[in-house]
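STRUCTURE:
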């Protein structure tokens, strides 16, 4: 029997490694583009610029960006664009026109309007003075950005502000907002010199898939040309995020960002209209307002300050795929090794189902490890975020190994009572206790995220990769080593009910086009079924 015993796990291991390699070869396949998103030989028309790095944020009023930092940014941007758009004169942004002029950049100067009248007047005064000081640099003033969308001002008040600015400057004056708000507030059109619209397919009320984004931008622009004849239509913001959660069928990714930007630039060149991309640099501070996706609209990475899509290089969602594939293969091999070493200490012939459970856990973990690490890197924000996703990833790595040991030892998945219940009923096995801790951590994080998708879903990320790595081994262990006796524990039943209810609601709320949501909901249900199958021995009174 010994040769058969060795051949079975070896065949499963080789199959596991082959599937991991095949998956990563497929995931890493680069996309083909008709033109590079960034081409020094054909500079971008204009890009939105904000100077904030790391923990710097305009949400803290005292934040002030130094001239040296701005100069570094603008020198880099001058190599890829001829123009930048700013949104405010605060936080050191009043220094931008002077520095931009030195490197040959034009500036569309922003004036930030809000419900604070005194700040509005100060912004207008500074921007008007800058336009007079730098007439060869500032090409237009944007009086307010999405103030109607935010509901901080009426259209009539906004139009009054715009008219008050015009006599003070000699450059064209406009206002910028989402395209629908121009159609709803036509009186603003009469006050501006040209119309600046924002078309963000990802953020539409009905999100647009990346492959349809350029068609959507084209349709909306032509619609606005008809609605507002006689004045130029500038697309003041358009683009696509490179990371973050799906919205229906709209998936943020490196490849999708490169594709959308490339196709929009091609369209602008063919149709002869002006377009400003959002944005130059990734802005981490926006994640506080918009979740992960808010921080990844840039064409340049916030940390390395490097262009995401260098000319002449292929675009892949996973540029480090070989390292990620190698890590997944290593995890798979370790899971099989744990199972084999467990058998050496308990020399009996395991059932085929036990090895299948180990193989399934190893393969799933190996396939998803690289994705889980990638998601943790991009989606963790702040101490709480790093702690939550770090704990989930640790549980995801530990789960297949601990479950492999339990499967080969004949031990079932422990209940919460074995760790937290009366002292007489607690487990004496360190490995069982550790497996129980991993199960509890996974269940708590799953419940917390599930509730988040019910009560505050708009900006939350789907933890499908790490959660799957952790839950599949639990389910496999429960199938092969299910306890035959005992009562159903109350804690597990309560969590199972919560997960079922939230999964059904989330699946309906997010829609069936959102595969990240559907995947996550399936794993919630799998964890719920696993918890419902738990049995706890009754402790004598």
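SEQUENCE:
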């Amino acid at each position: 029997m010994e040769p058969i015993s060795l051949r079975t796990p070896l065949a499963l291991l080789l199959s596991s490694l082959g599937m991991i390699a095949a998956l990563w070869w497929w995931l890493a396949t680069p996309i083909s583009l008709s033109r590079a998103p960034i081409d020094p030989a054909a500079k971008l028309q204009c890009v939105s610029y904000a100077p904030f790095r790391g923990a710097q944020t305009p949400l803290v009023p005292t934040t002030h960006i130094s001239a040296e930092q701005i100069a570094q940014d603008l020198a880099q941007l001058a190599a890829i664009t001829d123009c930048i758009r700013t949104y405010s004169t605060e936080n050191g942004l009043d220094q931008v026109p002077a520095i931009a002029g030195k490197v040959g950049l034009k500036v569309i100067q922003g004036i930030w309007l809000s419900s604070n009248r005194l700040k509005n007047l100060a912004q207008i005064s500074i921007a008007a003075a800058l336009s007079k000081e730098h007439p060869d640099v500032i090409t237009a003033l944007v009086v307010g950005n999405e103030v109607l969308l935010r509901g901080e001002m009426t259209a009539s008040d906004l139009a009054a502000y715009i008219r008050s600015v015009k006599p003070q400057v000699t450059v064209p004056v406009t206002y910028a907002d989402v395209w629908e708000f121009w159609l709803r507030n036509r009186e603003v059109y009469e006050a501006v010199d040209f119309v600046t619209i924002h078309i963000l397919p990802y953020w539409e009320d009905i999100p647009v898939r990346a492959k349809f984004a350029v068609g959507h931008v084209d349709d909306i622009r032509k619609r606005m040309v008809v609605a507002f004849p006689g004045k130029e239509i500038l697309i003041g913001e358009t683009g696509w995020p490179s990371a973050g959660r799906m919205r229906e069928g709209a998936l943020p990714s490196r490849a999708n960002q490169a594709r959308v930007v490339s196709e929009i630039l091609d369209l602008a060149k063919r149709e002869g209209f002006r377009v400003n991309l959002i944005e130059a640099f990734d802005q981490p501070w926006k994640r506080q307002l918009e979740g992960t996706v808010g921080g990844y609209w840039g064409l340049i990475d916030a940390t390395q300050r490097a262009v995401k899509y260098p000319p002449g290089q292929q675009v892949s969602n996973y540029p480090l795929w070989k390292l990620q594939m190698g890590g997944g293969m290593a995890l798979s091999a370790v899971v099989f090794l744990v199972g084999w070493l467990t058998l050496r200490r308990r020399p009996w012939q395991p059932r085929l189902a036990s090895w299948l459970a180990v193989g399934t856990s190893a393969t799933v973990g190996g396939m998803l490890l690289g994705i889980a690490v990638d998601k943790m890197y991009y989606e963790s924000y702040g101490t709480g975020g790093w702690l939550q996703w770090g704990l989930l990833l640790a549980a995801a790595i530990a789960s297949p190994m601990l479950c492999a040991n339990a499967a080969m030892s004949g031990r079932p998945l422990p209940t919460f009572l074995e760790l937290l219940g009366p002292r007489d009923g607690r487990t004496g096995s360190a490995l069982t206790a550790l497996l129980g801790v991993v199960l509890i951590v996974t269940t708590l994080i799953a419940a917390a995220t599930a509730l988040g998708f019910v009560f505050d879903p708009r900006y939350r990320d789907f933890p499908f990769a790490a959660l799957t790595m952790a839950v599949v081994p639990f389910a496999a262990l429960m199938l092969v080593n299910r306890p035959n006796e005992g009562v159903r524990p109350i804690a597990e039943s309560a969590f199972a009910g919560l997960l079922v209810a939230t999964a059904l609601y989330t699946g309906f709320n997010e829609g069936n086009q959102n595969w990240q949501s559907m995947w996550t909901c399936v794993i919630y249900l799998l964890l719920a079924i696993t918890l419902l199958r738990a049995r706890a021995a009754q402790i004598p009174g």
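REMARK: Residues 7-25+318-532 form one domain.
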